[in-house]
Amino acid sequence: MSLISRLKTYAAAIGLDALAVTSAAPFAAEAAILRERSAADLYPAFITRNLAQRCDPTVVLPGCRSVIVAALSYHSREEPSEPSRRSGYVARYAQCDDYHQVLYAKLQLLAEFLTPHAPDSHRYKIQVDNGPCLERAAALRAGLGWQGKNNLLYVPGLGSWVVLGILLTNITLPHQVLSPQSRCGSCERCLKSCPTDALVGPYTIDPQRCLAYITQMPGLIPHTYRKLMGARLWGCDTCQLVCPHNAKLPVRRHAEWGEPLKTPDLIALLQMSPAEFTAQFGRTALHWRGVKTLRRNAAIVLGNLGDREAVGALAAQVRHHPSPIQRAVCAWALGEIGGESARSSLSQALQHEREPQVRAEIQTALAAIGG
Fold first, then answer.
1. 120-160 per-position pLDDT tens digit
2. Are strands 18-23 and 153-154 parallel, antiparallel or unpaired?
């Protein structure tokens, strides 16, 4: 049996759902696209602009000969956890244990499996959505799947409910240069369903308008997007949920994903300490941005849900929370919920608030209520 055949057999044995290999050649076409998107202000905020690192595996790992791409499905149950009356929606990938750690461990096992076959010493690097290399581009060139109009990778039999990781290695492995064709056809359900119109065209996304980014962004979320968040506490799955290629897929039950996350009570989240947040969410991707981000999002979702039982907790934060950002979004939420109690709380807060940005939010909220 060839090395690549043994590698794929071993990958399946350790629980990887799909694996393919491509060369370490630069991604020249992708580099040109990224330059265009950067000039058009369509470049992701969280990702390095060093295109040499992004598009040339040999810059990240000198002597790189092969790029191994692995996919792991997180479609672990028929239906995702839905928000209750006082909880927010959490994107499916974050409803289980942190995929960075789960997939990294499996790729580390692959690296150890390959080590005896290295020409001298085995040099490799692992990346799971935490490095510069273009994971999706590598997956496409390796033939692992095809790209949807929502910009996500679709793996046959798994849909887009997958996380990707890559293993750069100095071992030469056989590969093919493939360009899988999109299977979207004339369907544009994802484009029409995007709540913020972040999908500006087929295969083109404005990442700064995507709710997956907006719910993780630092600072104050612009007014434009607050109502569009709806009940989304973290991330957004809309473009995947409406996709016909994601319908009726087999469930993949990976024990490493752990128990499904229970959607958190938003009022409790408002008042949660960093230690309590880590205890409840430390095993998940929700922990990435820390309690401040989730606390801010919780206030916005409470405003969108219109839950008047949240007025007391929101009012307390408008008056006493040390963060101007948190005071501002809580004021906005009170304006959305409305009612005499919310109006009175905002009026009292305005008398004591000195931060101009927060004062403006309170005044806008009072105007929305009619106070």
1. 899 999 999 989 999 999 999 999 999 999 999 999 999 99
2. unpaired
Q: How far apart are CA 127 and CA 103, in angstroms?
A: 9
Indicate if the alpha-carbon torsion angle 160, 222, 278, 309 is positive or negative. negative
Residue 259: count other Cβ atoms within 10 Å of its Cβ: 9
How many CB atoms neighbour CB 156 within 10 A?
Answer: 12
Number of Cβ within a 10 Å radius of residue 249: 15
**Which residues are known to be catalytic?**
129
- The superfamily in CATH containing domain 264-371 is Leucine-rich Repeat Variant (1.25.10.10)
Cα 236 from Cα 252, distance rounded (Å): 21
> Would you state the pLDDT for residue 77?
64
Locus of tokens 């500006």? 200
Decide the pairing of beta strands 124-127 and 18-23: unpaired
Give me the residue spans of the domains in the chain: 3-82+90-169, 264-371
Tokens of 128: 């799971």
Name beta bridge partners: 127. Answer: 166
- Write the DSSP string, 319-348: HH-S-HHHHHHHHHHHHHH-SHHHHHHHHH
Top-ranked range on mean pLDDT: pick from 25-34, 73-82, 248-257, 296-305: 296-305
- What is the H or E stretch that residue 104 is in? helix 99-114
- 285-329 pLDDT, tens digit per residue, is 988 889 999 999 999 999 999 989 999 999 999 999 999 999 999
Band of pLDDT at residue 250, cut at 50, 70 and 90:
confident
Cut 0.90: pTM above it: yes
Using only C-alpha atoms, what is the Rg of the chain?
A: 23
CB-based contacts of 194-203 (< 8 A; 24+ apart in sequence): 194/150, 194/238, 194/239, 195/228, 195/230, 195/236, 195/238, 196/225, 196/228, 199/149, 199/150, 199/151, 199/239, 200/42, 202/149, 203/147, 203/148, 203/149, 203/151
